[in-house]
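User: Let's play a game. I give you a shape written as tokens, and you guess the letters that built it. Ready? Here's round one.
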């Protein structure tokens, strides 16, 4: 069975497209792709999954690049709270 709309591989592809677009300076379009990735990951993976928190960080990064610093900070805090709860405050990924 191939990857469908709600598959982790599809989310990874959306995320990769978002990364390229953001690196090219196409921040608004990148945000759309990152939001697609996070929507799939929230549906298909545990909310505490590392891929989901990575998506939160990616959304935060593009929001920061769009000078939406307050909104970016909310997404960064969301990812950090999950990582601290799951991994502990002393883990290198927190």
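Assistant: Ready! My guess for every position:
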């Amino acid at each position: 069975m191939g990857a469908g709309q709600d598959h982790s591989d599809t989310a990874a592809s959306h995320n990769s497209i978002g990364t390229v677009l953001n690196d090219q300076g196409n921040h608004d379009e990148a945000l759309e792709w990152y939001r697609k990735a996070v929507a799939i990951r929230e549906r298909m993976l545990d909310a505490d999954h590392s891929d989901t928190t990575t998506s939160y960080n990616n959304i935060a990064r593009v929001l920061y690049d769009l000078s939406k610093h307050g909104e970016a900070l909310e997404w960064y805090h969301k990812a950090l709270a999950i990582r601290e709860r799951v991994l502990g405050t002393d883990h290198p990924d927190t």
